[in-house]
Structure to design on (586 residues):
C-alpha cells in the first residue's frame, strides 16, 4: 500500500491504515507538511479556529482555542501528528509515475520503484495556481505573481496592485497589500461572503454545530458546483474581524468586476458586479437563516443578526490601462488546481480533476483524500479529514479483503 | 403536492445539460440575422435559420424587424432604434431566465413584468465629445414579480436569471466583434 503525500490527509490515511494493520508507506516529495513550509505567504493563518484544528487522536490542547494557527504552527501540528501516529514516511521521495499493472499499481519514485495493491492519492488540491489565459496578454511592464510565490507586500514593487479573485486568498492579499500603502484594485467574480463571527460565535462553529459541514457529497444538490466553490471570504486574525468586500472598500480597496479580457493593452472588467454581490449576499442570508433555524430548534439564546448588503460603488471602472503604470503588479488569486501529470492512469477528467466517487477513484484500488467536498463539505479543512480518511480507508480495506 | 407550471419544460433543459456535458461539439450554436438597407436610416433585419446540435435549424417562421430612428432624430421612425433592440433582448432573456429558474425551483409565477431603462449620452454617436462613449452608460432593469415565494426567493430568482443569461453576459462582458466587407 502506498500513500502519496505526507500532509495532514496522507498522514490521516496512514493513521487508519495502521489502525487496521495494513502494511503501507507514505511517500513525500519534500518534508512532512511540505507545502505548509514552502508554499504559504508570511502572514497566512488557518481559516478555522484552533479548537477545530484537530487530527485523528490529536485534539487541540493549546491555550488559545479561539485563535487561528499560523503556517508555522500548522507545520508543528502535522509534524506532531506524524510522530504520534508513527507514520512510515519516506521523505525526499518524489513520485514520478503511477501506472496500473495486473493486481495493483506500479509506483516510480525518485528513489526507486514500488509495486503495490492500492494507492491513496493525498498530494493536495492546490499544487498549481490556476491562472487564466488573459495573463498572457498582460504587458511585460506589469509583474505577475501567484499566491504560491507571494510572500508579503514588502516584496512587491511600489505602486498599484490589481488582485484578481475575491476568495479567502484574494481578500486577504488585497487587505494586507492595501495596508502597506499601495493602491489596490480587486477584481471580483462570484464569491462566498461570510461574517467572521455570528451571534457571538465563530462562523465556523455554526458550520460545525448545525451540521452544514457534515453534509455528505451524495446529499449536495450540485456537487460539481460545490467542488468548484471558491473559499469563503474569511481571515483568521486575533481581532476576529470580518473581511468582506464592505470591509475592503472601507479600507480603500477599489472593487471592479470580473476580469474578462485584455484589449489594446487595457484590462476589461465585467459590468455585472452588482449581481455577484446580490448572489453572495443572498447565499449568506440563506446560510444564516439555516443557522437561526438550527439555533431555534436546539434552544440557543440570542436572536438573528443581519448584515448590510454589499455596497455597490457609485460607479465602477470597466477598464484599466495596463500600460499607464498605474498597476505595477497583478496578483492572481484565481484558485488552484491539482497536478496529476505523474498519474498514468486514465482517471483525470478534461478539467484536470480526478474522477472519483467519495474518494474511490474510478480505477479499483486507487483512492483520493483531501479534495474539495470529497465526502463532506468539510473535506478540505484540517478537522474534516478524520471522517473522510476513516471512510476511505474502510473502503480500501474492503477492497483488499475481497481481492486477497 | 401541487404542480408548478410556468410552461417551461425544465426536464428537457436538464436532460440537454446532461447530454451536452459529454458532447460539447453539439452545444456549438450559430445565431444569424440578415439585414437590408431600406432608405435613410431605416433597415429591415430578418431572422430565420440558425445552426445547432450539429445541423442547420430554422424557426417555425421567419421574423422581420424594422429598425429606424425616431422623428426627433429627423428620421421616419419606421421601427425602434437599434440600441433599443438590446433592451428587448435583455428583458426577454432575463424574463425567460426567471421563468425557467422558477420552474426548476418549484415556484409558481402569476405575473412577471419588467421595465428596462438604458442611459445613453448621444453626444458619443454624434461625435460631439470623444470622451463620451457610443453605447449605454448604464442599464437598469426593474422586475415586478407576483409568485408563490418569499421576497428573498424572488430576489434569488432574479439573481440566478442574470447569472445564466446570455444577453446579460453579452452586455456586461466584452465580446470580440469582426466586421468585414464581403
Amino acid at each position: 500500500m502506498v500513500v502519496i503525500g505526507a500532509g495532514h490527509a496522507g498522514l490521516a490515511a496512514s493513521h487508519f491504515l495502521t489502525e487496521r494493520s495494513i502494511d503501507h508507506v507514505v511517500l513525500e516529495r519534500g518534508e512532512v507538511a511540505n507545502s505548509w513550509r514552502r508554499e504559504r505567504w508570511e502572514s497566512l493563518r488557518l481559516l478555522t479556529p484552533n479548537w477545530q484544528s484537530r487530527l485523528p487522536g490529536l485534539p487541540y490542547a493549546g491555550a488559545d482555542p479561539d485563535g487561528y494557527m499560523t503556517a508555522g504552527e500548522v507545520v508543528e501540528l502535522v509534524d506532531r501528528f506524524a510522530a504520534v501516529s508513527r507514520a512510515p514516511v519516506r521523505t525526499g521521495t518524489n513520485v514520478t509515475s503511477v501506472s496500473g499493472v495486473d493486481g495493483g499499481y506500479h509506483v516510480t519514485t525518485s528513489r526507486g520503484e514500488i509495486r503495490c495493491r492500492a494507492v491513496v492519492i493525498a498530494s493536495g488540491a492546490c499544487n498549481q495556481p490556476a491562472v487564466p489565459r488573459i495573463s498572457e496578454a498582460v504587458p511585460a511592464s506589469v509583474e505577475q505573481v501567484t499566491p504560491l510565490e507571494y510572500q508579503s507586500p514588502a516584496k512587491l514593487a511600489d505602486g498599484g496592485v490589481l488582485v484578481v479573485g475575491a476568495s479567502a486568498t484574494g481578500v486577504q492579499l488585497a487587505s494586507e497589500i492595501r495596508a502597506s500603502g499601495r493602491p489596490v484594485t480587486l477584481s471580483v467574480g462570484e464569491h462566498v461572503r461570510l461574517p467572521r463571527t455570528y451571534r457571538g460565535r465563530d462562523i465556523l462553529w455554526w458550520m460545525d454545530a448545525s451540521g452544514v459541514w457534515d453534509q455528505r457529497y451524495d446529499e449536495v444538490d450540485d456537487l460539481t458546483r460545490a467542488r468548484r466553490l471558491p473559499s469563503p471570504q474569511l481571515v483568521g486574525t486575533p481581532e476576529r474581524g470580518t473581511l468582506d468586500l464592505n470591509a475592503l472598500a472601507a479600507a480603500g480597496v477599489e472593487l471592479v468586476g470580473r476580469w474578462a479580457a485584455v484589449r489594446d493593452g487595457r484590462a476589461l472588467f465585467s459590468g455585472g458586479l452588482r449581481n455577484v454581490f446580490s448572489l453572495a449576499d443572498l447565499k449568506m442570508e440563506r446560510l444564516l437563516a439555516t443557522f437561526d433555524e438550527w439555533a431555534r430548534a436546539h434552544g440557543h439564546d440570542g436572536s438573528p443578526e443581519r448584515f448590510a448588503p454589499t455596497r455597490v460603488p457609485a460607479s465602477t471602472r470597466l477598464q484599466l490601462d495596463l500600460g499607464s503604470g498605474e498597476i505595477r503588479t497583478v496578483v492572481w488569486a484565481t484558485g488552484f488546481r491539482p497536478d496529476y501529470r505523474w498519474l498514468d492512469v486514465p482517471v483525470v477528467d478534461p478539467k484536470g480533476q480526478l474522477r472519483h466517487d467519495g474518494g474511490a477513484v474510478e480505477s479499483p484500488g486507487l483512492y483520493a483524500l483531501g479534495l474539495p467536498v470529497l465526502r463532506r463539505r468539510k473535506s478540505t479543512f484540517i478537522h474534516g479529514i478524520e471522517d473522510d480518511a476513516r471512510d476511505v480507508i474502510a473502503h480500501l480495506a474492503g477492497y483488499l479483503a475481497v481481492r486477497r | 403536492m401541487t404542480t408548478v407550471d410556468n410552461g417551461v419544460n425544465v426536464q428537457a433543459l436538464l436532460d440537454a445539460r446532461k447530454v451536452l456535458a459529454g458532447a460539447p461539439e453539439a452545444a456549438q450554436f450559430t445565431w444569424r440575422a440578415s439585414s437590408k438597407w431600406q432608405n435613410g436610416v431605416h433597415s429591415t433585419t430578418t431572422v430565420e435559420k440558425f445552426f445547432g446540435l450539429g445541423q442547420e435549424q430554422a424557426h417555425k417562421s421567419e421574423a422581420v424587424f424594422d429598425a429606424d430612428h425616431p422623428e426627433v432624430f429627423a428620421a421616419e421612425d419606421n421601427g425602434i432604434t437599434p440600441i433599443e433592440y438590446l433592451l428587448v433582448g435583455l428583458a426577454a432573456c432575463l424574463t425567460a431566465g426567471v421563468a425557467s429558474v422558477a420552474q426548476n425551483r418549484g415556484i409558481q409565477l402569476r405575473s412577471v413584468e419588467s421595465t428596462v431603462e438604458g442611459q445613453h449620452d448621444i453626444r458619443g454617436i454624434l461625435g460631439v465629445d470623444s470622451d463620451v462613449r457610443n453605447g449605454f452608460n448604464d442599464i437598469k432593469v426593474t422586475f415586478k414579480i407576483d409568485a408563490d415565494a418569499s421576497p428573498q426567493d424572488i430576489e434569488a430568482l432574479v439573481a440566478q436569471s442574470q447569472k445564466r443569461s446570455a444577453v446579460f453576459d453579452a452586455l456586461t462582458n466584452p465580446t470580440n466583434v469582426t466586421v468585414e466587407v464581403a
Remarks:
- DSSP finds nine helices and 23 strands in chain A.
- The longest strand of chain A covers residues 95-101.
